[in-house]
Amino acid sequence: MSRLALAAATLLLLASCHSLEDQASAWSRFVADFPAASCATAARCGRYQSAQGCAALHHGPTESWPQDTAMRFEDSDEVRRAILKGRASFDEESAKACLAELRRASCESLPTFSCMEAVQGQVDLGAPCYSSRECRPALFCDATAESCPGRCLQRKTEAEASSFPTVWDCATTLVPFEGRCVAYGEVGAPCGVSVAGSALPPSEPDLFCESETASCQPRRGVGGHCQAEGFPADCQLGLRCQDGSCSLLAPLGGVCESQGCARDLRCSTHVAGQEGVCLQRSDAGEPCWVDADCAAGSELFCEGATVSAPGQCMATHGPGETCQAELSQSGGCRTGLFCDAQTRTCSPTCREPFCPEPSCHEPETSPAE
What average pLDDT does this structure show over 95-104? Predict the structure, then answer.
């Protein structure tokens, strides 16, 4: 290759990198803007005491929403890497439409907004891939820890066998269920267990399996009948079952029994059968029963709670520091770490990509001709 051609190729590479960096920056802005839009709706619908309290929770308000219709950001860095490598593209206009749709989402049903359309994979069928985010629509990446990179393959059709199907493996209208991809049950469809004793596919996210009729029925709103205390499937998202009726989550100062408070609050007691009151989450050194009782986004965990007495919110442990899994749900490790049962130390959580690629800032060198 001549020096002139090499220089032209280098300029094209740099221009491409800048374009990809612009998309990656837009993606990062979207990830940063998402909590404000989603939390405003979540607070309006009573799932949180305040939008600020919701935004402080690192997992955001999407923990009960279907993966196919809610953008989750645990893998936001992975998406950014894919964009920088040109393996995925980001459509900022679709992202803006997603945020607008989310702000006006109904409280009565699960949102079906367009966030997933904002990121489009660019890797073709059969080509190497590092995650399903990189594959074109209707494809998924079969990469594993033992086989990396994988290949982009066709998503599986209804009833097609798969050892461990995920939402990525299945076609977009299907859901993984007992080793195959199946369609959700619609209103009136049979659910639960068949006459032959085999499990039937799950109901659509806005529905639940009604035990009396063994059929898929709409989730019930405030005042609707429910059978199990807490957060049963028969109540609409964000409602709790209290005294046999679907009810709004309790606000600050409201009555609770271990559960039932707005998600950015805590219940003063977790003792079975004991009535408590909804309080602000605890700071370091204050009482707690579970990790979620500690102040959101503060890197605290609950240590020392028993079935009859609360513990205290304590600072989480960093990489390599000693942890005790039996003391709390997280073992006391900082976000992104887990308590290794063998070493009893906080260790990084294993995540994709299994073998990351070089960044856009690391172009291959070519000898001058």
Answer: 85
CA distance 245 to 222: 7
Angle (deg, nearest 10), helices 3-44 and 76-84:
150
Beta-carbon contacts of residue 33 (< 8 Å; ≥ 6 apart):
99
pLDDT over threshold 60, residue 6: no
Instruction: Identify which has the larger pLDDT, 315 or 71.
Output: 315
pLDDT in tens, 219-246: 998 999 988 777 778 888 778 888 889 9
* CA–CA dist 210, 202 (Å, integer): 11
7 membership: H or E segment, kind and range:
helix 3-44
Instruction: Kindly provide the b/e burial profile for residues 298-320, where b requires at least 16 CB atoms within 10 angstroms of the residue's own CB.
Output: eebbbbebeeeebbbbbebbeee
Q: What is the dihedral of CA 307, 310, 313, 319, to 10 degrees?
A: -20
Inform me whether the pLDDT recorded for 33 exceeds 80: yes
Tokens of 2: 């001549």
pTM assigned to the model: 0.67
Cα torsion 62, 67, 70, 72: sign: positive
Whether 46 contacts 249, CB under 8 Å: yes
Is 349:340 a contact under the CB 8 Å cutoff? no
Tell me phi and psi for residue 16, to 5 degrees. Answer: -65, -40
Estimate the share of the chain in helix, then strand, then coil, as percent rounded to the nearest 5. 20, 25, 55
Token pair belonging to 111: 């949102």
Structure tokens at 246: 């679907």
Q: What are phi and psi of 329, to 5 degrees?
A: -65, -35
Collapsing DSSP to helix, strand or coil, 195 comes out as: coil
Please tell me the distance from the alpha carbon of residue 195 to that of residue 172, in angstroms, as a whole number.
29
Amino acid at 171: A
Domain segments of the chain as ranges: 20-122
Between strands 300-303 and 276-280, the pairing is unpaired
CA 66 to centroid of chain Cα atoms: 9
Tokens, residue 156 = 């599986």
How crowded is residue 168: how many other Cβ atoms within 10 Å of its Cβ? Answer: 18
- Quick check: 344 pLDDT over 70? yes
Strand-pair partners of 161: 180
In this model, does residue 132 exceed pLDDT 90?
A: no
